[in-house]
Every structure is written in C-alpha cells, then in structure tokens.
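Mods, move this if it's the wrong board.
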Amino acid sequence: MANIAIQISKYLIIALMMAYTFSCFSIFTRNYEDEEKRVLIRQDVLLFLMQLLAFATMYLAADDMRILFLYGALAVVLLGVILLYNLIYPNVSKLVVNNMCMLITVGMIMITRLSSDNETPYGTAVRQLVFVVLGVTFGLFVPVLIRKLTFLDQWTYIYAGAGGAALLAVALFAPRSGGAKLGFELFGINVQPSEFVKILFVFFVAASLNKSTEFKNVVITTAVAAAHVLILVVSTDLGAALIFFVVYLVMLYVSTRQPLYAAAGLGAGVLAAVAGYHLFGHIAVRVEAWQDPIATYSGSGYQVAQSLFAIGTGSWFGTGLFQGRPDTIPVAETDFIFSAVTEEMGVIFGLCIVLICVSCYVMFLNIAMELHRRFYKLVALGLGTCYIFQVFLQIGGVTKFIPSTGMTLPFVSYGGSSMLSTMIMFGIIQGLYIVREDEEEKREKEKEAQDGLGRAAARKKRTEVRKNGTKFEEVPRQRTRKKSGTRPK
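Not the wrong board. Structure tokens:
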C-alpha cells in the first residue's frame, strides 16, 4: 500500500511543481495588482502543498518521526520568511521570495532523503536548516542597508582589496581538497571565501566602471579583475574563476558597448583555457571525464557516469522518493544534487527547477533595466549573471553538457557558504528593488508637482480671461486609466 501511495505522490508532486513554474512566468503578463496578488497567493499554496506531500511520502517510506520534525521546522521557517518579508519590506519582489522558498524546499527534501543513510541520520538536513535560518537572518538586514548606504559606489578599491586578500589567503594557506584549495574549516564548518568574494567583485567592477569607461580605467579594472581570476586559477578553483571571468565580460560589454572588448576577452579566455589544460593535471582529468565518462568509469569518469545513470534511471517522472539509489552518486548533496533530484523526482521536475531559476534571472534583469543610477544597474546585472551562470555550470556539469566544475546549485545544494552568500545576493537584489520603487515614487511626486503647477497656471489664465471679458473655451482633458502593478512584486 505504501509503495502505491509513493508512486501516486510522485505524479502529484510533479503536477504541483509544474503549476508553480507556470505561475512564475504567467505573473509577468498580469497588469493589475489584485491579479498579481492572486498568483502569488496561489504560489504559496502550491509551495506548502508540495512540501507537505513530499515529506509525508518520505515518512511513509522510511517510517521515521524525525522526518516529520524536519518538515514542521522547515514549514515554520519558510512561513516566517514569507511573513517577515511582507511585514518588513512590503515593496520587495514577492516572486523572488517565493522562488527562494521553493528552491530551499527542493533542496531540503533531497538532502533529507540523502542524509537518511548517513552515520548520523538526518544530521546533514538539520545543519542545512540551520544554514537556512542564518542566511535568512542576514538576508533580512541587507535590503535596508542597500537602501540607506548611498555611498557604496565610492568604495571601489576597498572591494578589490578585501576580495583579493581573501582569495590570496586561500591560495596560500588553505588545505587542498579534491584537487583544489577552496576554503578553511572553522568550528567544524567549511567556509569558502570565494562565495562571498564574488559579491565584492561585482561591487568593485560596478563602482569602477560607473566612474569611467575610458580606455585607461578599463585597463586598470581589467588588470584587477584578471588578478582575482589568476589567484583562483592558482588555487585550482576553476568554477569560481570561470564565474568571475564571465561576470566581468558581461558587465564590461554592457558598460562600454564595445564589441572589441568582448571579443578580446573571449580570445584571452580561450587561450587561458588551453594553457590551463596543459599546465594543470586537474583540468585535464575533468576534460577526460567529460569526453568519455564510460571509458574512464573506474577512474575520473565515475562521478559523471553515475550522474548520467541516475538521470536516465529517473526518466521523465522519477522513481519516487526513497525508491532510487541517489546515494551511489558521489558528493550527491553538493556538486551532483541535480542528478539526485531528477532520479527520484523526474526530469520534468528538474526542468521546472531550471525554469524557476530563469524566472529569478528575468526578474533581476527587469530590476536592472528600470534602475536609474548606473552603479545600481551594473550591480543588479552582475549579481544576476553570477547567479544564473552558476546554475548553468552546475547543471551543465552533471548532465555532461560541459566539463564538471564542482559548483553548487544555489539554495538547493548543501553548504553554509553557498546558502549564506546566495541569501545575501538575493537580499541585495531586493534592496535594489526597493530603491527602484523609491525612484518611481519620487518621479511620481515630481510629476504631480509639475501637474499642480500647470493647473495653477491654467486657473490663473482663466481668471485673467474673465477679467478681460474675453470669451474663453477650455478643451476638456482626456483621462486614461492607469494600469497598476505592471511589474511583478
């Protein structure tokens, strides 16, 4: 009976996820605030229904009360996130908040499933929930800081110095793990400074290019950015190095509109990739595993091969929670969590995750385009590119589309540094959303003031006309119905 319930539940979970994903894009077509609110409320209902169904299914399969305790704690935390954002920041993007909660839910479901077989069952899931709480706590303070600190564009070389020093410390003193120097262990928790430095890097590039896009300043900015990338390459943290490189190219091109800069950057990147392949055995091993993981199954290709086997086993609808073998995928909770999700929850579910991430990126671009301050525009663009490119690297690596880079899937993969840095990144975006709302409110007040002056001038003219006894004919003013809420909240 339990097996039948599990098999039925996987189709219901996919249906709920598909309905949620559809609403992520349908909200962009809503023209009125009441329509948007209905869609957002529907998203919350779908989110908590899917969460309830998934944890109930895992409880049926494992018959362990700890799963229900994890479900209750997660439901309370995410309900608190939604209510706090609505209470403290009524003007933030509710779509981004809902998407954040959905991705956290997916991650907690799979981490709970994977940690059931650990030496300390569900210990990883509990730690991830603690990371979520810490991330939310930090994330709630970020929007108000972005709104109040109006001098962030003046700290150009503070960002560069702090970020470069952190990366250099890792390159010099961090222990090597899995062929790369990633970070330090503090109080039993692995801290990866590159996760936080990428935020500082975006702020540095935005501040520098906001000051000037003249050739001299572009050369200086490029040199500092290249230093960040080279330090990461020396640390063999190739995934982070690639993110920094792509983010800088995108921000440089958008700032200067010079195709020559982009072409030169791409050329330099290709040469650097070829040189890295010949200089670092770590890169050569990953390329070899990417080219033919089956031929190298007993060695470097084992991870990618197991990932592909898991995705193929799950097919479109998945095997069902606790019905697959995602624990056979190496580092499934971090680098290969997308494979674990698609094995038990299906490729359709995995595609929905991709689309939810894309909807977040579309929202980030929407914010970037409508901000008036150039510095804020570049920050929103840089953080959005950083986020979506990391998603591409993670999913592309586990599906053999590109060589594996060892990146985590934001909000879904296990990891304190990844969770906290992504929360801060989303908090910055929400702060920029509030700044945009402030700018619009200011423009509306200015417009109302101008309209008021215009009406006062018209009244004065009519008074003068009456005094002169001249016939005065006023053309009736046409009114148009203003659409409210044209951008999703």
